[in-house]
Amino acid sequence: MSKLHVGATYELTVKRKIETGYVLTDGKEEILLHNNEVTKELNENDEVDVFLYHNKKDLMVATMSIPELDVDTYDWVQVVSKVQNLGVFVDIGIQKEILVFKDDLPLMEEVWPDEGDELFITLDLDRKGKLLGKPVTEEIIDQERDRADKTILNKTIGGRVYNATKIGSFIITENGYRGFIHASERKREPRLGEWVEGRVIDVKEDGTINVSLRPLKQEGMVEDADLILDFMKNSGGSMPYHDKSDPEEIRETFQLSKAAFKRALGKLMKEKKVEQRDGQTVIINK
């Protein structure tokens, strides 16, 4: 019985040429290499490296366009489409787009990758032998990452989200460092596969880093104050939030920590733009 399966590269022999392409063999099984998958002219008995996958008719076929990843290796691939309740499709360098199933994506679809985002994945086979994309695991990241040192503290750094959770976002930086962005250090939850840029706020003993997507306090205070003022203007000039409000309510409403909220509110009060009365914060009409 042949051991050929999709998601892997094999050296096969050209058995014969046909109108639509070439018939390849491993000595036991025949595989079609279609003309539109050929990158150079072939002759009978030539040995050729090909990648195997299922075409739209669910037949195992070959391509001479060899992806950088297979069932044993990982690579960054671009998201080309998103299908509600199913998952996202990625381009691995062959004619067929590969599905990353919803079970391997964040629970909330708004955090799924958008077209153009990139995922670090490997290839896997489902129970029916169909090819799927599988996002990288934490174990693989830990094996492959580089170790950061204290020299990058407070530096701006870019990275791509490889794991998106409510508690925080995990990224691989352009330098190969593993980074973590706590929920309190972001104004919104980045998408899986999204490129983000932030500031290194801590370097751990194991070489991982903590990153903040929030601006420095003084800059952030201005942005946060504008955010709060806009919220109040859109709410009739007042809001039921004040400096004694519950931190979780503040975070859910403004995506701000209690400390950042109080700083921004204090700025608005100092500038006499708002005041607190009767458990409310209201805009001062001049």
UniProtKB/TrEMBL annotation:
Spell out the SMART domains in the cross-references.
S1
Q: Which SUPFAM superfamilies match?
A: Nucleic acid-binding proteins
Residues folding into a coiled coil are: none
Q: Where is the signal peptide?
A: none
Any Pfam family: WHD_CvfB
Q: In what residue span(s) does the S1 motif domain sit?
A: 154-214
The UniProt family comment states: Belongs to the CvfB family.
- What is this protein called in UniProt? S1 motif domain-containing protein
